[in-house]
Amino acid sequence: MSQGGYAVVDVDDEINDQGNGLEFKTFLPTDSHAPRATSPSPPDVPYSPFNLAYYQTYFDVDTNTVLKRVGMAMIPRPGFIAENCDGQIDLYGPFWTLTTLILVLYITSTLISSITQYLASSHASSNLPLLSTAVSVIYFYGLGLPALVWGATKWLGVGEWGVAEALGLYGYAMGVYIPISLLCLIPVGILRWVLVFGGAASSGYFLVQNIYPVLASADNKMTRLLIIAVIALHGGMALAIKVLFFSNSTIGPDPIPDPMS
Amino acid sequence: MSYDRVGTPSQQLIQADDDDLDTLSFSHPNPASNSNAGPSSSSSQQQAQAGPSNPSGVSGRIGQSSQPRRERGWGGVRTETRYTGESTLDEPVTKTIMRDLNSIYAKLLQVLYPPKGGGNNQLLRDWDLWGPLVICLTLAIILSLDAPQEQSMQVFSLVISLVTIGSVVVTINSKLLGGKVSFFQSLCVLGYALAPILLASIVSLLVHTLFVRIPVSLACWAWSVWASMNFFTGTRLQESRTFLAVYPMCLFFFVFAWMIMIQ
C-alpha cells in the first residue's frame, strides 16, 4: 500500500488540478483564499447570484458559533477570520449584527428623545424618520463601504480576500456599538462622547488589525495608504452616530436639570 | 404500481399524488363504483369541514375517493373530469367573497391558535397573500392615524415597506439556514402572525395610557413570535440553529411593537 499509495495520491492531485482549471464557474475568491489546511471545503455549488443554495455556504453556522464570533469581534485582535472563524467567514452574523444595531439605535434614540420630551412636557412629534436614517446610514457603512473597499483592493491588484471577508469584518466590527448604544441611555453628555469614541477606537483598531495585513501583502507600498481612508471613514461614522442618535443631551435641553427649572 | 403507506402527514400527501397518477394513467378503476361512493362521502365531508375552502376538498385526493369523477376517451386520449364539490360559475358574488373570507379566517385561526384551528397544517399549504395584505394595510392605516399629522404619510409607507421587505428577508434567512419551507407559504404565515400586533395597535389607538400600551404591546409581540415559531418548528431546522431562525423574527415583530409603544 505504501508505494502504490503515493502513486495514487499523485494521480488524484493531477485530476483535481485539471478539474479546477476546467471549472471556470467556481467562485474563485473562496477557492484561492483557504488559509488553512483544515478549512471547510469551498462551495461546490456553481456560482450564480440567483442560486440560493450557493449562499447557504455562508450561512452554515450554529448559534454558539455566531455568539462566539460576535463576542470575539469586540476584542480587537488580528487574525479574526483565520482564528475565530476557521478561515470561513459567515454572513449571518454580520447582517443580523447590523440589523440589530439599527433597531437598537432606533430604540435608544427614540426612548431618549421621548423621555426628554416627557420631562420637558412638550408634546412634540415622534421620531420615526430616525428609523429610515438608521437603516440608510448603517447599511451603507456596513454593507456598501466594505464592498467599495474590496473593490478598491481588487482594482489595485491586492486581491487576497473575497468580498464576503470584507463584509464579515465590517459587520462584526459594528457589533461593539450595540452595548454602547444601550449604555448611551445614561443621560450624561460627556459620557456619551467617551462611550461612542471608545467604541469607535476599539472597532477601528479591530478593522485596522484585520485589513492592514491584506493591504501590506501588496508589492506596491502606496496601497497601504488605503488604511488611512478606512480609519477616517470609521471616525466619521462614529461622529455620525453620536450626532444623529445621541445628540439630545448636548444640543437639546439636558433631561436632568430640566424638571428643576 | 406498488407503494408503501407511510405514516407522517406530509408524506401522505405525496402518496396521495401517487395515487392520483395511478388512477389517471395506469389502472382501470370501475367508474360505477366510484360514482356511487363519491357523492355521499363528498357531501358528508362538506358538512364536516365547512365548505370547499378547505384545501383537502379542493386539491383532490382521488385515491381516497372523496370526489366523484368521470372518465371518457376521446380518440384514444383518456380525459377525466372531476366534480370539486359545487359549481362556482353561477353562484352569487357574496357566496364567493364569503368563501374567501372564511378561508382567511380559518388560516388566521390556524396560525394564531393552532389547537383551535384543528392542528391542521395542511390548511397552510394552500397559502394566500390576501390576509397578509389586509393585515398589513390595516396596521399601516392605524399607525398612521396614531402618528402626528405631518408624519402620517411617512409612517404609512414605512410600515408597508417594513412589512414586505422584512418578511421577505426573514423568509430568505430561514431558507439560507437550511429550513425546508416554501417561500410564499412562509410569507403568508408571517403576514398572518402580524395579527396580534394589529390588535395591539387598535388597543393603543383607543387607550392612550402608557401603562396599558406597554404590557399589551409586549404581550402581543410574544404572541406573534410564538405563532410564527409554531410554524417554523415544522421546517425541520437543526436544533442548534433554531435560535438563529427565530431571532430575526423577534426583531421583525419588535420593530412594530416598539412603534406602537413609543407613539
From TrEMBL, chain A:
Keyword match Coiled coil: no
UniProt keyword annotations, A-Z: Membrane, Transmembrane, Transmembrane helix
GO biological process: vesicle-mediated transport
A Pfam family per the record: Yip1
InterPro entries: Yip1_dom (IPR006977), Yip5/YIPF1/YIPF2 (IPR039765)
GO molecular function: small GTPase binding
Origin: domain of life: Eukaryota
Localisation: Golgi apparatus membrane; Membrane
Domain Yip1 span(s) in chain numbering: 74-239
Residues that span the membrane, as ranges: 95-116, 128-149, 169-186, 193-212, 224-245
Record's signal peptide: none
Topological category with respect to the lipid bilayer: Multi-pass membrane protein
Gene Ontology annotations for the cellular component aspect, listed alphabetically: Golgi membrane
PANTHER family: PROTEIN YIPF
Family label: Belongs to the YIP1 family.
Protein name, entry field: Protein YIP
Annotated organism of origin: Kwoniella bestiolae CBS 10118
UniProtKB/TrEMBL annotation, chain B:
Ranges that cross the membrane: 129-147, 153-172, 184-206, 244-262
Region (Disordered): 1-87
Boundaries of every Yip1 domain copy: 120-259
Membrane topology value: Multi-pass membrane protein
Bias (Low complexity): 30-56
Composition-biased stretches (Basic and acidic residues): 68-83
Keyword field contains Transmembrane helix: yes
Key words, A-Z: Membrane, Transmembrane, Transmembrane helix
GO cellular component: Golgi membrane; trans-Golgi network
Source taxon at top rank: Eukaryota
Gene Ontology process terms (BP): endoplasmic reticulum to Golgi vesicle-mediated transport
Principal cellular location given in the protein's record: Golgi
Annotated localization: Golgi apparatus membrane; Membrane
Family, similarity comment: Belongs to the YIP1 family.
Protein name listed in UniProt: Protein YIP
Species this chain originates from: Kwoniella bestiolae CBS 10118
